[in-house]
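User: Structure please.
Assistant: Input sequence and predicted structure:
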Amino acid sequence: MSKPTLAVVGATGAVGTVMLDILSGRPDVWGEIRLIASPRSAGKVLRVRGEDVVVRALSPEAFDGVDVAMFDVPDEVSAEWAPVAAARGAVAVDNSGAFRMDPQVPLVVPECNAEAVRERPKNIIANPNCTTLSMMAVLGTLHRRYGLRELVAASYQAVSGAGAAGAERLYDEVAALAGDRTVGTVAGDVRKAVPDLADSPFPAPIAFNVVPWAGSLKEDGWASEELKVRNESRKILGIADLKVSATCVRVPVVTTHSVAVHATFAEPVTVAEARDVLSAAPTVVVLDDPAAGVYPTPADVVGTDPTYVGRIRQALDFPNTLEMFVCGDNLRKGAALNTAEIAELVAAELAG
């Protein structure tokens, strides 16, 4: 059988650009790789696996002959076009939030529930939110051994999670404030010094600041990103009654989300046991020697594929509970890489 044809929808976007880089370093399971984007990007030439590929305009015909279509586009675009791709015979692997909680669409992290890719009534598979995904390799590994029961998470989310506009906004604010040593003091009014917030994807200055908000307002004061952590964790791990509470915070980091995790298990677990179990997980890197200043930070993680974990501690006053600090590149593992790994599972199924 010939190798399957892959389409990358949104190839010119922030995540799509990372996807093309990832595909160039992944196993050679694809035949043609077709690049698709909005009509205004059609005709651009992008480099994939050492070859120049011309971008096609998004249309129903663009999916003819495609076996797997990866979508790295906004929710509304996926909602319209992923069913079109599926109707034309492709398995749609969607990185947006359009289908994550659809009961007929599996929500997949290969380290946790790879088998779920085969149950896809709509021929669509969803990729989780990058904040949820930052924790899943670690939590899935520990859950299989000790049985996760409760999760409290505080995220420290990079500005690129808001798209290219998020990163540009941080750079613009830093440039506006550079050299002003009064910033952050009583004498330095950050709000007046940064560009107009009406043009920002964030509700407050992000340079020299943190913003305890990510997403849109939901009932009872919750942010949409916080509810995604709860709902998606339950679905991925297959724990319908998992107790979850999350607080999502945007921080002045360009790329790589971090999460402070408080995880309670059904079975007793020691720090040493957790380190051993996590060290054996193929996509997890343990950096955990605080006495030597060893723990993961975004600066260590950006541009890499694994999930990194450190600061592993037995929670004070909480039995069977671990405290951890987890980091993952939100544009790679948090979005593009996981989508590529899902697509590769489908490719293996089609080949087998």
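The chain is about 30% helix and 20% strand.
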